[in-house]
Amino acid sequence: MTTQHTTGTPAPGEAATTAPHTSTAGPPPLPLNPDPHTSRKLGRILIGAGAVVSFASTMLPWTWTSAFPGDLTIAMYPAGLQLLTLAAAVLTAAVLLATAGVRGLRWLTPGGKHSTLLLLTVGNLATTWYTAAAIAVELGGIVNFEPGMWIAVAGTALAVVGALALPTDLPPDPSASSTSSAAGTDERPGSWQRLRHALKAPAPGTAAPLPGWAEIVVICAACAIGLYVFAYGIEAEDGPPFIGFLVLAAFVFPALARAGLPKRLSVLAGRNRNTTLAAAFVAALLFPITQSNEAYTNIAVSVLIFATVALGLNMVVGLAGILDLGYVAFLGVGAYTAALVSGAETSSLGIHVPFWAAVLIGAAVALVFGLVIGFPSLRLHGDYLAIVTLGFGEIFRISVQNLDGDSGPNITNGPNGIPNIPDLKIFGFDLGQPHTILGFELGRFANYYLLMLVFTAIVVTVFRRSDDSRIGRAWIAIREDETAARAMGVNAFRLKLMAFALGATLAGMAGTVLAHVEFSVTPESYKFVHTAPPNSAFLLIAVILGGMGTVSGPLIGAALLYLIPAKLQFMADYQLLLFGIALILLMRFRPEGLIADRRKQLEFHETGQLDTPKAATPGLGKTEA
Amino acid sequence: MTTTTPADAPAPGSGPAPGEVVLDASGVTMRFGGLTAVRNVNLDVHAGEIVGLIGPNGAGKTTFFNCLTGLYIPTEGTVRYKGTVLPHRSHLVTQAGIARTFQNIRLFANMTVLENVLVGRHTRTHEGLFSALIRGPRFRRAEQESEERAMELLRFTGLQDKREHLARNLPYGEQRKLEIARALASEPGLLLLDEPTAGMTAVETTATRELVLAVREQGTAVLVIEHDMRFIFNLCDRVAVLVQGEKLVEGTPETVQRDERVVAAYLGTPFEGEPGEAEAAEVQAAEEADTPGAQHGQQEGKTD
């Protein structure tokens, strides 16, 4: 059969592929040699060679002009997109050595081995070839390639061929082969099926227990890597460098997932919840000192506000199961309240209260709005509730627009909004001015970032603590089956109102900071749907994309959802289309969101088996923690 | 048609002597538009009693249950629990002390077994949102007590090894047990079971019977709907029969079992002028006298 090629890559061992093989261990997707052992050896050599070649190529110039973003012209100095290829090559080599059983690296692949290698090499190929394509398109033709580029292209292809020759991690699927033999044409499954099978990996076994300090070190290292990746993503120049980063990330994370590292890590994190939170907080705290550019800290503080509000929404949607399509209105209530009482010249109230008071007032007003809106609408269920909340969200925006002195009393200054909100001064510390602390210069947005981080920490704490309590259990029970929850003595209406009002309060709190960060508030920022966050639709997407009911899910979802439009300005026209496609794909292949709590994972992927939880499984053994 | 057997008469012999009246439903009527699902039903349950409620499909048993637990507001009639009239809100009914299970299992499928039982504790604990956020010592103590009590119930129902499993992954019989454990977590004075053995094997049914008896030993009265007659007649101190929304008979299992109207309700009444046994024998004799043809057997079957 000639269906053994799974990609269009040139295969050096082409002649050998036509040879039939009778190995019962299951045919590798691309056998370079009829003998599985030789094929395996050859594959590993090819991967190793490919990794070394692509590594070496990053030391050479890829193009002749620095007109291409990132400056890929300097020898022995990898930059921009070259760094991505470099990172992928190093990671591939490390995993290759780990699968060879090199001491000290074996922890890298507790789960799948060859599927990890395959994904890593394909990721390297995708990023590198994307770079080549971008150079060819931007500079006009492949004539702009330096030899280094060609070497990189060849090296990554070599590694992919090698990875395809490796045997699969799992024995062949009996059901897949039986269906193809039922077709009567071939005993072996088709190439597509075999590629899919090659991407499956076994779950990692239970880890040998580490000493307590080592676990903490691992968690800190993971947080540091997370910080670095986020900082790299935020700093990557718009256009090709950022797209290359996304492409690589889209392959490396699944690769690591197949290697079983995230599972191991989440077990560790489940054992050391407080340490993990503290490490993540410190990593977030350190972020501004890695940044020198105000534009990036500006993005970071916006991401943080957006993520915090998404987490607040997650409490309403993810825990209590109330589909709220007008959530951004509460952010608006907080922002407008803060704008009115913080001494802006155009404020109709004309008062200036200290920031802590503004936060309390903003949260309190949002709470009142939450109760007023929730009281009538939470008597509805499902679609009806969603429509009513959508309506209330729009009512807020339109009312604010009309309270301009013409159509109604002048409170909000109508469509012009309230501009020139003064910067905050907390204990004489002017957040509007750059400060130098411990030798690090912190600009205006970095100051606000650090302020916002405190609020994020508050929301995370509120979320975790209410989730793991009598109230949180009642919320989840209502989400699961409201009638049964009521029959168990849960006052469903009261608890839903509580969730709704608490979510509103948290959003209002975040809004008070937002007003100061953005200098001004205008009604147009609080729409149901808009091309840029925050708006109600994007908030909901962030929650669903990240993973409902988790803490980290909405944070990551919001970060992605904010960063991608901010970094890909040139694609603004197609943004909503691309989001639509991405969401459809996500719902098809990973309906539980990027970060799944185990509950959701079981809900969506029926294994047909009883789950056998280990001791300290994250997200479930909460009552013990 | 109302009761002919005196309802308040203590069940002779079987079971402990009935104590105070736990549940007193009087004149409960439930109409849905023109349809009267439950008509003027009186029922009372005494402390420490197991009362069965039987009747053909569509007799209004579950509707009656829903009226008792506040899911439906009865069109007429009142339901008293230990002398106080029950409000028409199901969470208040549970708070008052009546817990129930559902005919089609309604567990919180994506919560763990332990969490399911902890939700059942909701009315018996009072830690609000603020104490959850502050996490003072009182909150911790209450959570720990709740968990201990829940584990006790899981041990009682034999589910202690499955505390971290998702409810949806339990086998059917254990889901039924978990529903009972969850209901018991609200420390009810009266437990309403809606077809607890539906779809169970004989062994599981026996286990459920033991469980219900053990619940009674703990001082909880039980009102149970069931179609499995052997289960009902072996278990209950008293049985009430509901037919087309009305209570037909109420009494000890023996009384009910012997009541012709109950048999009629389940199997139908013999029609007027039905051939008696003598006539049947006559026909049979006549047929045998004839030369039996190939269709003899069939004809005989028809005559019967």
UniProtKB/TrEMBL annotation, chain A:
It holds the Pfam family BPD_transp_2. Its main location: membrane. Keywords: Cell membrane, Membrane, Transmembrane, Transmembrane helix. The chain crosses the membrane at residues 45-64, 84-105, 117-137, 149-166, 210-230, 242-261, 273-289, 295-313, 325-343, 355-375, 445-463, 497-517, 537-564, 571-589. It is found in: Cell membrane. It comes from the Bacteria. It is a multi-pass membrane protein. InterPro entries: ABC_transp_permease, LivM-like. Residues 1-37 are annotated as: Disordered. Residues 1-22 have a biased composition (Low complexity). PANTHER family: HIGH-AFFINITY BRANCHED-CHAIN AMINO ACID TRANSPORT PROTEIN BRAE (PTHR30482:SF10), HIGH-AFFINITY BRANCHED-CHAIN AMINO ACID TRANSPORT SYSTEM PERMEASE (PTHR30482). This is Branched-chain amino acid ABC transporter permease. The lineage of its organism: Bacteria, Bacillati, Actinomycetota, Actinomycetes, Kitasatosporales.
Automatic annotation (TrEMBL), chain B:
Residues 269-304 are annotated as: Disordered. Residues 23-269 form the ABC transporter domain. Coiled coil: none annotated. It holds the Pfam family ABC_tran. Keywords: ATP-binding, Nucleotide-binding, Transport. GO terms for molecular function: ATP binding. This is ABC transporter ATP-binding protein. It comes from Streptomyces smyrnaeus.
